[in-house]
Fold this protein.
Amino acid sequence: MHTLTGKTAVITGAASGIGLSLARRFGAEGMKLVLADIEPDALATAADALCASGIDVVTQVTDVSKGDQVDELGRVALDAFGAVHLVCNNAGVGGGGLINTLTTADWEWVLGVNLWGVIHGMRVFLPMLLEQGEGHIVNTASVAGLFAAPFMGPYNASKFAVVAISETAHNELAMTGSEVGISVLCPSWVKTRIHESARNRPDDLRNDDADDGATESLVAEAIEGFIAGGLSPDEVADHVADAVAAKRFYILTHPDSKQMVRQRMAAILDDAPPPFLMPQ
């Protein structure tokens, strides 16, 4: 894509955090926006603000863990604007705890949104981009997809998988000579509400255990301080926009991340145990 003006972007998790900043950034580039989120009120508020800035916006309440809802998001985008050019599979949740304490519901919730949301987004939108011969996909992973910190098992697993899917797609696109590009976003701490993800956890994936809410609160409190000192979502969106323009695959937004990746790679090459690494 030589220009973004007049093109269409689909962004999931668009009502807040990185997703909303991506919407603002690409809207400022003159793109038409199809915004998806699981929170109707927040999505409407975000859309109103963007429309007030003169940006053409369509919204669709979407649970990205549900394939039929992502199918519908694709139909809404085509009905509204006739084509899709940029897809940001960005919706995500946080969740964790000690591996031995996690329930099936814990794993299903995090993997449903973080992993299956990307899978559904790739399945629905990549064929559209390939058919028209242009476009770009940005999959939101994390530095937790490049090295694994403790207490984040489901989150780490989902983000490693997103990196792997994105790398696979990149090589397949290169092998076929496609003009469609793909990037994987791997930020460290960002000032978002991911520590409040449990507000959107479906009732059927909540644990029956009486102290489930207390456990989630402890996890949220543990990471809230890191998030408060994190990068602005607007800065992350600038990194993404630069990567799309340059067709750059890896998007690492924090200076310390590469050194941590080097430490992990060195341990693998040296037959050493994995180092204890925490996102900075």
